[in-house]
């Protein structure tokens, strides 16, 4: 899985650091809704969608649990727990309503709309990380493999939806392909600045400190010269 380097780092450091848990929760919800949409009694001839996303849901559940265990602070843990609870609630509501209240095309329509909306949310969830990349000019917390996977996943499912004439698959994954490409472009621009954001801030602080020290030195030198001049003037007056 493309997430493994990130999660090995989290487990090794026993902290989620600045990594965001939002994309993993949104991916979990997308996998659950897509797996539900692909079931034969909801959307016929989409078993591949159901199978792949069912496996994805299991993997993403493991990732969310890791985020809960190694959350960097209590606030981050509560936020991840809240998101996970919201994911479970949304999926439960969609599944129960589509199963108990709707039948035939109406069931497929509800499941498809839910999948489309939350698939777009999933692909858009890294926007906060992209904003951080632009602000800090560092890609440390936007793994390349994850960005590449978003692009390839979105593109492949977009093509699958086109071939199957399924708008519920085509539309969200077309958006995902575009957003994945945007992440790769950002990575290409800032790839050489990985991990340099904090160092840049420290360097600026050192420069300011050196500048202040320089000004203090100049003031001290000026005071010394002034004191020397006063001493010489005093000697001349005494001689007179």
UniProtKB/TrEMBL annotation:
InterPro entries documented for this protein: SWEET, SWEET_rpt
Membrane-protein topology: Multi-pass membrane protein
Gene Ontology molecular-function annotations: sugar transmembrane transporter activity
Basic and acidic residues compositional bias, start-end: 215-226
Protein family (similarity comment): Belongs to the SWEET sugar transporter family.
Purpose of the protein: Mediates both low-affinity uptake and efflux of sugar across the membrane.
Protein name in UniProt: Bidirectional sugar transporter SWEET
Taxonomic placement: Eukaryota, Viridiplantae, Streptophyta, Embryophyta, Tracheophyta
């Amino acid at each position: 899985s493309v997430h493994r380097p990130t999660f090995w780092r989290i487990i090794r450091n026993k902290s989620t650091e600045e990594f965001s848990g939002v994309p993993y929760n949104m991916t979990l919800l997308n996998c659950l809704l897509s797996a539900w949409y692909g079931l034969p009694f909801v959307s016929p001839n989409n078993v591949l969608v159901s199978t792949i996303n069912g496996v994805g849901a299991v993997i993403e559940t493991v990732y969310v649990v890791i985020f809960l265990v190694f959350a960097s602070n209590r606030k981050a843990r509560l936020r991840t727990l809240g998101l996970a609870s919201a994911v479970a609630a949304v999926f439960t509501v969609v599944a129960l309503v589509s199963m108990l209240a709707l039948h035939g095309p109406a069931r497929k329509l509800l499941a498809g709309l839910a999948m489309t909306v939350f698939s777009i949310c999933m692909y858009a969830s890294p926007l906060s990380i992209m904003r951080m990349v632009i602000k800090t000019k560092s890609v440390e917390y936007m793994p390349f493999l994850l960005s590449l996977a978003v692009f390839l996943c979105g593109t492949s499912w977009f093509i699958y939806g086109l071939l199957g004439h399924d708008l519920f698959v085509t539309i969200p994954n077309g958006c995902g392909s575009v957003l994945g490409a945007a992440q790769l472009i950002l990575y290409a621009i800032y790839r050489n600045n990985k991990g340099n954001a904090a160092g840049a801030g420290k360097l600026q602080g050192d420069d300011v400190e050196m500048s202040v020290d320089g000004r203090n030195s100049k003031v001290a030198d000026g005071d010394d010269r002034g004191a020397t001049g006063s001493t010489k003037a005093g000697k001349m007056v005494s001689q007179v």
